[in-house]
Amino acid sequence: MNTSKFSEFVLSAHDGFDEPTMREAFSHAVPIKTIVIYCLDPRVTEIPTAVARYLGDETYPGEVIINENGSRIGSTTTLATVAVAAGRAVDGVRSVSVLQHLFGIERIVVVHHSNCGATSYSADGMIDAFHHEHGTDISHAFDPASVCITDFEASLAYDTNLLRASPGVPKRAEILGLFYNTDTGEFTEVARIDGASVGRPTSEGLS
User: Fold this and answer.
1) Contact 47/41 with Cβ under 8 angstroms?
2) Counting Cβ atoms within 10 Å, is residue 119 exposed (0-12), middle (13-18) or buried (19+)?
3) Would you say 85 and 118 are in contact if contact means Cβ atoms under 8 Å apart?
4) Which of 127, 155, 154 is nearest to 141 (CA)?
5) In the beta sheet, which residues pair with residue 141?
């Protein structure tokens, strides 16, 4: 039994909890169908809203639904966001799996943007800096092809294929890779994989 002082806020700790029933309730509480993985750069916070406009069939940010007791029980948004360094898919895979389990996912959009800090360094440079500045070896901590961006077409192709190959990503989901021009606000579609395609990530060829 959960005896934490916060146990009242843990749904699975409530008497009579039934996981399948709760999962079904969550799937209706928020009609999420699309996940956007994008950069946490504070200069591009508008990306999810811009993606919703670009796709044309999404509701974002939507409205929070509040019941008669004042509790937040749902939302009208259909688009969920995952903000990570450089918008690299490797950091978003777990979130995709969780959201698929709770809501069901139809589309995943990966966005990489111009003027991104991840284009200002190399994987080797980051590894060397950690060695000299922190005395640690991170050479095997991360996939080098996901550490930085040296070519936007290559990074978006890599990330969309990484998602497609992941067992935690629904095979029926469409996967898009978009380049966002921060100066013009325009998107360019670089990669698209439909639900029937299966690929394997290939090296971005960093040197």
Assistant:
1) no
2) middle
3) yes
4) 127
5) none
Domain 20-119+149-193: CATH class, spelled out: alpha beta
Give the number of other CB atoms < 10 A from CB of residue 26.
15
Question: How do residues 12-69 score in pLDDT, each as one tens digit?
Answer: 888 888 889 988 988 889 999 999 999 999 999 999 999 999 999 999 999 999 999 9
- The phi and psi torsions of 60 (rounded to 5 degrees) equal -155, 135
pLDDT tens digit sequence for 78-137: 999 999 999 999 999 999 999 999 999 999 999 999 999 999 999 999 999 999 999 999
Distance of CA 118 to the CA centre of its chain: 17
Q: Which residues contact 19 (CB under 8 A, 6 or more apart)?
A: 12
- Residue identified by tokens 């966002």 is 180
Q: How far apart are CA 18 and CA 197, in angstroms?
A: 36
How far is Cα 157 from Cα 154, in angstroms, rounded to an integer? 5
Q: Tell me how far apart the alpha carbons of residues 145 and 201 are, in angstroms, rounded to a whole number.
A: 10
Structure tokens at 110: 């990966």
The helix/strand/coil state of 120 is coil
d(CA 38, CA 204): 19
Cβ–Cβ under 8 Å, residues 30 and 103: yes
